[in-house]
Design brief:
The complex is a heterodimer of chains A (329) and B (273).
Chain A (H helix, E strand, L loop, with lengths): L1 H21 L10 H7 L2 H36 L11 H15 L1 H5 L3 H20 L1 E2 L2 E2 L1 H25 L2 H11 L8 H20 L1 H7 L3 H6 L4 H23 L5 H13 L3 H25 L8 H24 L1
Antiparallel strand pairs in A: 1-2
Helix pairs in contact in A: 1-14, 3-9, 3-12, 3-13, 3-14, 4-6, 4-7, 4-8, 4-12, 6-7, 6-12, 9-12, 13-14, 13-15, 14-15
Chain B lengths: L6 E7 L1 E2 L2 E2 L3 E5 L4 E5 L6 H9 L6 E6 L2 E2 L5 H7 E4 L10 H6 L15 H13 L15 H14 L4 E5 L7 H18 L2 E5 L3 H7 L2 E6 L2 E6 L1 H4 L2 H8 L3 E5 L6 E5 L2 H12 L1
Helix pairs in contact in B: 4-5, 5-6
The chains are: A mainly alpha (329), B alpha/beta (273).
């Protein structure tokens, strides 16, 4: 059954990929696509190579990466409401970016400073959550979660402070960044994101069995021969770095890390050997579709992708929750 | 008396801030059905956690079949020792998948799916524990007794040398208590599995265990056969409760009877008259 489900997701990702390449202000026919890509000339090719393909690759990799980080963190914390941003990663990244914008470093040193600052902010948060979350040399997951939530509050207050003292232009830049965007001119960053997301899936899959054992709790996982503490350490660092990279490249794209793993779990169960792959494909599919909607709903203008993921994600989440409630009744 | 050195605990000190086991020394023979008894907070679970590797040993040694457990990897330990706890998890995982988790210690890091052999071993123990008939049900759809049986099936699927049980029957009615304990007894007598079980009910401990370790205040207060350990003096001293004991006419093991305050007062009044 699960092989069929994964194949279905794969087919849907391919279909969404096609839709993403063809839809937009300038529509391209499916029959034209091979010749455009072969000839490598003309307006259509420019649109595909400069706008749609880079966005598609980012949507695929960020969607997949955010979704598996959500699945991993929910597994580690045994809490289906944990997502990459609960741990303050987005808050830290946003604060880093806001600081760079307010200090004008992006204008002085170049726009690459924004993702660098985002990643640095996320990294500092991860560092704080990890080390402050330790108690007598051992990881305490509840403590980590609380510290993450607190750092998130501190970061958002710091950001509001920066926003309150900066110019209107800077304010606009900060707000625009926090809404998330898949527009990334730097092809190296896109490649890095793509490689990191696939590598993240591979590493996470190596830990599928320990994650399965952790569903029973740390003590029970230890009884089953799993080094629970080491598993949690490695997976926390992998998931956090991946989430930090996503935020640095795409800004704050909410809900993907929360709802996609949740949705997949409700369909195919909690076996991580299947959940990780399904979550990756589901996250990619969700973000590719959201990106097409963001580009086309009010074309030629564009909606921030965070708005689409928030609205669509929120509604789907409520629907799933209400349906599952009905089932239990 | 045979040497009790299959599971050997020597000068064991470990625990938490504010509570430590006080230099425990004891041994258990291969094939024993041993019980740990004692009041709440006496260190029973701490001892079990030290043996299973859940908490670190401060001082002393624990060895199983002459192998120092501290020198074994977590995985190797899971192949030798399986644990059944008071609460088997009510998780949304099918019984079969849950029982198959017992094969985890035998899988390499790059073996992601169970082998045919794993499935056969899990099936064998599901049949033995009578949970195979609801193997497709989710664990959270089972009754407490059925879940405990599935927990035992999972532990057996680990094919351990030593089975540790932490109050496996405390949440169950007497039908399921007896069902679970009869099963553990069968595993002990028929398969030769060595069993170490924490149990609160002194009568069940007396009936099912061949050997008892009575804990109190982090110390091993008394050890021996039920007849040696379960006398009214020791029980009153450790539990601070008035009891009397009598031999069970069928099993020839001691049965413990509680005496309530009301009866004690009545008894005193009758004596004074």
């Amino acid at each position: 059954m699960w092989i069929g489900f994964v194949l279905l997701l794969l087919v849907l990702v391919i279909a969404a990929t096609m839709w993403s390449l063809l839809a937009g202000e300038m529509k391209i026919q499916l029959s034209q696509l091979p010749s455009i890509l072969k000839n490598k000339t003309g307006m259509e090719y420019a649109i595909l190579s400069n706008i749609r393909i880079p966005r598609l690759l980012l949507a695929f990799s960020i969607g997949g990466a955010l979704s598996i980080t959500g699945a991993i963190l929910q597994g580690i914390y045994r809490n289906p409401l944990v997502e990459p941003y609960t741990l303050g990663i987005s808050g830290g990244a946003a604060l880093g970016v806001a600081l760079v914008i307010v200090l004008g470093l992006n204008l002085k040193l170049g726009e690459f400073m924004l993702p660098v600052a985002g990643f640095a902010g996320a990294f500092v948060t991860i560092f704080l959550v990890y080390f402050l979350g330790m108690k007598r040399g051992e990881i305490n997951i509840n403590r980590m979660l609380l510290i993450g939530v607190m750092i998130s509050f501190v970061a958002s207050s710091g950001m509001m402070f920066l926003m309150s003292i900066t110019s209107a232009d800077n304010l606009h830049s900060i707000i625009f960044w926090t809404m998330g965007s898949l527009e990334e001119p730097n092809s190296s960053l896109i490649k890095t994101m793509l490689i990191a997301s696939v590598a993240g899936l591979f590493i996470a899959f190596l830990f599928a069995q320990p994650l399965n054992a952790l569903r029973l709790g740390e003590a029970k996982a230890t009884h089953l021969g799993i080094n629970a503490a080491a598993t949690i350490r490695v997976l926390f660092v992998v998931a956090s770095l991946l989430a930090g990279l996503c935020v640095a490249v795409g800004g704050i794209i909410g809900f993907v890390g929360l709802i996609i793993p949740h949705l997949m779990r409700s369909i195919i169960g909690s076996d991580y050997r299947i959940l990780l792959i399904s979550s990756f494909l589901g996250g990619s599919l969700f973000l590719i579709v959201s990106d097409v909607l963001a580009r086309t709903i009010i074309a030629p203008n564009e909606l921030p992708i965070g708005v689409i993921t928030g609205i669509v994600g929120g509604l789907v989440f409520i629907l799933v929750l209400s349906r599952s409630k009905l089932k239990t009744i | 008396m045979m040497d009790k050195n299959y599971l050997k605990v020597e000068n064991l000190i470990c625990g938490y801030r504010g509570f430590q086991l006080d230099s425990l020394n004891f041994g258990i023979q291969r094939g024993d059905f041993a019980g740990i008894i004692g009041p709440n907070g006496s260190g029973k679970t701490t001892l079990l956690k030290a043996i299973s590797g859940e908490i670190k040993i401060g001082k002393g040694h624990i060895s199983l079949s002459d192998k120092n457990l501290s020198h074994l990897s977590i995985r190797e330990k899971a192949k030798s020792i399986a644990v059944v706890t008071q609460h088997t998890e009510a998780v949304p995982i099918s019984v079969e998948d849950y029982v198959l988790m017992g094969r985890m210690p035998y899988r390499s890091d790059f073996q992601f799916f169970e082998t045919k052999e794993d499935i056969e071993i899990a099936r064998k123990y599901m049949e033995l524990t009578d949970v195979y008939r609801f193997k497709d049900k989710l664990m959270n759809q089972l009754s407490g007794g059925e879940r405990q049986l599935a927990g035992i099936a999972r532990a057996l699927t680990q094919e351990p040398q030593l089975l540790l049980l932490d109050e496996p029957t405390s949440q169950l009615d007497i039908t399921h208590q007896v069902q679970v304990l009869n099963l553990v007894q069968d595993l002990n007598t028929q398969m030769g599995l060595t069993v170490l079980m924490i149990i609160h009910d002194l009568n069940l401990a007396s009936e099912y265990c061949d050997y008892l370790l009575m804990m109190n205040e982090g110390k091993l207060w008394k050890k021996g056969t039920p007849v040696e350990v379960l006398n009214y003096k020791t029980i009153e001293e450790v539990y601070n409760t008035v009891v009397f004991t009598q031999e069970n006419p069928l099993s020839k093991k001691p049965a413990v009877f509680l005496v309530s305050n009301k009866i004690l007062i009545q008894n005193k009044q009758n004596n004074s008259k």
